[in-house]
Amino acid sequence: MNKHRVVVTGLGVVASNGVGVEAFWQANVAGRSGISLIDVFDPQEFASKIAGQVRGFSPANYMTEETANRVDRFVHFGLACAEMALKESRLEIANEDPDRIGVIVGSGLGGLLFHEEQMVAAFDRGVLRVHPSAVPRISPNAVASQIGIRYGLRGPNLVISTACASGAHAIGEAFRKIQYGDTDVCLTGGVEAPLTRFNFAAYCALRVVSKRNSDPAGASRPFDRARDGFVMGEGGAMLVLEERERALKRGAPILAEITGYGSNSGAHHMVIPDPEGRDATRVMAAALKDAGLASIDYINAHATSTKANDAAETRAIKNLFGPAAYGIPISSTKSMIGHALGAAGAMEAVVCVKTLVDQIIPPTINLTEPDPECDLDYVPREARPAKISNVMSNSFGFGNCNATLVFVKTN
Amino acid sequence: MTNQEIEQKVKEIIATKMAIPLETISAESRLIEDLQVDSFGAVELMFELEEAFGLNIPDSDIERVRSVKQIVEYLSEWLKKKSENPGLAAPGEKAGIPLSPVAGEPAMSPGITRESGS
């Protein structure tokens, strides 16, 4: 069968260094960090006290106050990003067949914030004080359902949870659904609101987060010798993916085409990547093959700023591209916004699309002294104008769940 | 608390919950027919009332109150009972004593207890 071609017609993003696509993109090009001392809770007793906390975001700007009061923060991100993306796409739902529009969103954790509040209520005030809305607020699929309900979208409605690769997997699966004609349009992306006391304690206990508390903006330093773990981030991003012919017919803004998706597992360890990066090599190869490409102009790396990931990912890129790896510009969005877990892959997809549109590669900030094991071109510290026809975005989740997406320039 | 004060508070809770102007709610307003409270909304509303007035409303009573006026009467009756018997537990307390003003209601399940004092 002939697979349909799929284009991106709208973007929405909420990040610590910018709310809205333009603010976020300008911050990325300028190399502006969104990392700061946490103040949504008192971080004093935690080993790490910093995060990519989203500030200046008012849910009520994007949804009714009633809705804002009834959903968890991760759904705030989803509804806000969906609204932005739909607006940019100029998709008039009233003129569309809602049965042919789906919603596929990635979230690693779901409604953790409300979950935590309700656990406290249950233990401290008694089980009768658990709120009746706990189930629908906490459920990870609340985000896709709330978006579907808000706009009356009756196509496939899914949430994908593959830890730090959730957003990328969601976009990849949405791409496939449109390719194979299961749906014509899909609102897809990823969201995460992980800044809760319990969750932050859990990541601190795992010893994977940076303790560079005295230098928040310098704490996320992928590929740098002095990197000491990732910085937790929060936020979300949504894309409107659309079957190309119908997008052209309705005169939609066509920002980029998505042409490749790879998905696999390392089957190695829950929290340690294969040191040789074999699964990462295979997932990139699968996405390239899917896109019908033999080379790539830019890689938006997973690049978390942990010792293990950045070295293994570098090895994987060299495994796949051989000596040509040294000529591929690579950069890390997480150097600026930290790691927003299930949202990361979607936020990075937005960066990839904007990179293709504006022909400029955002930098890896804080990379002053590269780790000898990380010896590729990571576009250190400053954005770089370049001629870019295609880009690749990597997402590697805990549990060795991997996803790679390929986007290509249109017009 | 006078019935007027109870009514004002009930209206405020409904207005916030349903995101409607306070003045559109009267004592005669019926929850389902006039205020468009659905079955889940009714459960949430009862929870908000429990929190605001410090009581546990048995499920069977939820179905008895169908208008603002009935809610006010119900709460008034209960608050009176509580003032005459201060030993009745507030819902935040773990005893889980049935607080229904209606006799013969089954006891609510007790709250989770925690051994440590942390």
Summarize the structure.
The complex is a heterodimer of chains A (411) and B (118). By secondary structure, chain A is an alpha/beta fold. Chain A is 35% helix and 19% strand.
Describe this structure in words.
The complex is a heterodimer of chains A (411) and B (118). By secondary structure, chain A is α/β, with parallel strands linked by helices. Chain A contains 14 helices and 15 strands. Chain A has one domain: 3-Layer(aba) Sandwich (Peroxisomal Thiolase, Chain A, domain 1), CATH 3.40.47.10. Helices cover 35% and strands 19% of the residues of chain A. In chain A, strands 1, 2, 5, 6, 7, 8, 9, 10, 11, 14 and 15 form an eleven-stranded mixed sheet that branches. Chain A has a two-stranded antiparallel ribbon with strand order 3-4. Chain A has a two-stranded antiparallel ribbon with strand order 12-13. In chain A, helix 7 crosses helix 14. Chain A is globular. The model of chain A has no long low-confidence stretch (mean pLDDT 97). Chain B is 44% helix and 0% strand. The C terminus of chain B is likely disordered. At the A-B interface, helix 4 of A face helix 2 of B.
Low-confidence stretches of chain A: none
Radius of gyration of chain B, in angstroms, nearest whole number = 15 Å
CATH class of the domain at 3-84 in chain B: Mainly Alpha
Biggest chain-to-chain interface with counts = A-B, 14 and 20 residues
Strand content of chain A: 15-25%
**So how many helices of chain A?**
14
Q: Which fold name is given in CATH as the topology of the domain at 3-84 in chain B?
A: Non-ribosomal Peptide Synthetase Peptidyl Carrier Protein, Chain A
Q: Give the helix tally of chain B.
A: 4
Report the span from N to C terminus of chain B.
35 Å
The CATH topology annotation of chain A reads as Peroxisomal Thiolase, Chain A, domain 1
- What gross morphology of chain A would you assign? globular
Mean pLDDT of chain B, as a whole number? 77
Q: In this structure, how is the largest beta sheet of chain B organized?
A: none
CATH superfamily of the domain at 3-84 in chain B: ACP-like
Count of all domains of chain A:
1
Helix- and strand-based class of chain B? Answer: mainly alpha
